[in-house]
Amino acid sequence: MEIRGDVSLAPFNTLGLDVRARRLVTAVSREDVRDAARLARAEGWPLHVIGGGSNIVLTGDLPGLTLRLALRGRSLGGQMITAAAGEDWDSLVDFSVSAGACGLENLSAIPGTVGAAPVQNIGAYGVQLSDCFEGLQAYDRETDRFVRLGPGECGFGYRDSVFKSSARARFVICEVTLRMSATFRAVIAYPGVAERAGRNPTPEAVRRAIIAIRREKLPDPVRCPNVGSFFKNPVVSTARLTALHERYPSMPAWPEGDAHKLAAAWLIEQAGCKGAGCGGAAVSDLHALVIVNRGNATPADIARLTAEIQARVRENFGVGLEVEPDRLP
Ligand SMILES: Cc1cc2nc3c(=O)[nH]c(=O)nc-3n(C[C@H](O)[C@H](O)[C@H](O)COP(=O)(O)OP(=O)(O)OC[C@H]3O[C@@H](n4cnc5c(N)ncnc54)[C@H](O)[C@@H]3O)c2cc1C
């Protein structure tokens, strides 16, 4: 295990923020994961786990030890696909579709690593990871052991899991197993998907359609650094939605259990924030839910713009916006 000191994390977060890690370990094996976690514990250092850095907002330099998951390897056996945490998520989707294994095609082109996928139960276009999740292997920092967790232990919800709440920072995910389907059931009800993929599409056609739609709608983090959706869609009660609809009849909303979800992008746009900026940070012209780094954004620029958007949406609609990506440290 190699420990590098005082390393810029600019290449390791898709928002491109140039903050520094006091120490960085790039783990290529389970032993690296265990050794790094043990060292951090023995030294009393905070441990920050990252994958592809596409769902984190770095608020400043990271003290302690940053552990970047780069374990590699993937296999398909029967209907199961197993992949190491450091594998690129979209390459795994491509691999599964090419092998004739179905179920992941709607999750095409989501940036990031396999190991991070269960953390927020990644989802898109009517499918989420939990639909085909079989289990994972993780290092348990509490017991200093490698453990296997099944779906029942992961507490998956909408963009949520125990890894974001009750077991936050406890497990370092090293490997994920997914159950593929031999028979293809196309999920194409989402607006625009059937139009592009056709009425009786193949998994390849669905994958191509999703990639094309995403390219049109979302700024590419490689050319325009960002972390995808910056805010969660707020959830409100029926009474609150009725009151909002009296004042704003065109406000989009859709059911979420007993409550209702509002479109954060609509709220941001209507509050006049599209195109707003603070220093090097700006709201994307392409999608109001995305904050982009125009080239030299600092964590302070991101924080100021975040606060301004939240304040404007609250002033206009009385609705609070919660940041979606994980803020480190
Ligand atoms: C342009 C764009 C579009 C996106 N679209 C979608 C979308 O459609 N749907 C969606 O769900 N998400 C989307 N995202 C968010 C992001 O791609 C996912 O959350 C992805 O799973 C993050 O992977 P990562 O490896 O980059 O994780 P990171 O950003 O490195 O980490 C995210 C969180 O997971 C933790 N973590 C990472 N790896 C591990 C591990 N091995 N063990 C334990 N904890 C770990 C980190 O500590 C952090 O809390 C999008 C992001 C971008 C930039």
What does this structure look like?
- The protein is an alpha+beta fold and 329 residues long.
- It has 3 domains: 3-69, Uridine Diphospho-n-acetylenolpyruvylglucosamine Reductase, domain 2 (2-Layer Sandwich), CATH 3.30.43; 74-217, 2-Layer Sandwich (Uridine Diphospho-n-acetylenolpyruvylglucosamine Reductase, domain 3), CATH 3.30.465; 226-328, Uridine Diphospho-n-acetylenolpyruvylglucosamine Reductase, domain 1 (Alpha-Beta Complex), CATH 3.90.78.10.
- The chain contains 8 helices and 20 strands.
- The chain has helices spanning 30-43, 89-98, 151-154, 193-197, 203-217, 238-247, 264-270, 299-317, and strands at residues 3-8, 20-27, 47-50, 56-58, 65-69, 74-77, 80-84, 123-124, 127-128, 133-140, 145-149, 171-179, 226-229, 235-236, 253-256, 259-262, 277-278, 281-283, 290-293, 326-328.
- The protein is globular.
- It starts with a strand and ends with a strand.
- The structure holds flavin-adenine dinucleotide.
- The site of flavin-adenine dinucleotide has 34 residues, from strand 3, strand 8, strand 12 and strand 13.
Provide the fold topology.
Elements: E1 3-8, E2 20-27, H1 30-43, E3 47-50, E4 56-58, E5 65-69, E6 74-77, E7 80-84, H2 89-98, E8 123-124, E9 127-128, E10 133-140, E11 145-149, H3 151-154, E12 171-179, H4 193-197, H5 203-217, E13 226-229, E14 235-236, H6 238-247, E15 253-256, E16 259-262, H7 264-270, E17 277-278, E18 281-283, E19 290-293, H8 299-317, E20 326-328
Parallel strand pairs: 2-5, 3-5, 4-20
Antiparallel strand pairs: 1-2, 6-7, 7-12, 8-9, 10-11, 10-12, 13-19, 14-16, 15-16, 17-18, 18-19
Bound molecules: flavin-adenine dinucleotide.
Residues 14, 49-56, 69, 85, 110-113, 115-117, 119-120, 122-124, 159, 163, 171-173, 218, 221, 226-228, 326 line the site of flavin-adenine dinucleotide.
